[in-house]
Design a protein that fits this description.
By secondary structure, this protein is α/β, with parallel strands linked by helices. The protein contains 1 helix and 8 strands. The chain binds copper (II) ion (CU). Copper (II) ion binds next to loops.
Length: 111
């Protein structure tokens, strides 16, 4: 085969890879998921190991946030179907609220 032929095959392969249908990027994976539903965090208390991740998913049409009382974590405003992930990289117990509806309470325990 000539260099030109090899180059042609290479370009075709590149095109094939570039044009292959891609799967939608999966939502960020997490070790534990907390659903935000009907103005509550479900489950209200989650326990993870140090270094694991927690994902909050807002199932409500209302906007919510996830804010640790000790400021260890704070999410942006989560609209319906939005998700937010926090990596629990330090042991401890973290009580949190929704900054918009402070009566919504939850707790993360990192072991
Ligand atoms: Cu809220």
């Amino acid at each position: 085969m000539t260099t030109k032929t090899l180059l042609g095959i290479f370009v075709l392969l590149l095109l094939a890879v570039a044009c292959a249908p891609k799967e939608a990027a999966p939502a960020a994976e997490a070790d534990v998921t907390v659903r935000i539903k009907d103005f509550a965090f479900i489950p209200e208390v989650v326990t993870v190991k140090e270094g694991q991740t927690i994902k909050w998913v807002n199932d409500d049409s209302a906007v919510h946030t996830v804010e640790a009382n000790n400021k260890a974590f704070s999410s942006p405003e989560l609209y319906q179907n939005d998700a937010w992930v926090w990596k629990a990289d330090k042991k401890g117990a973290y009580e949190y609220i929704c900054g918009i509806h402070p009566s919504m309470k939850g707790k993360v325990v990192v072991e």
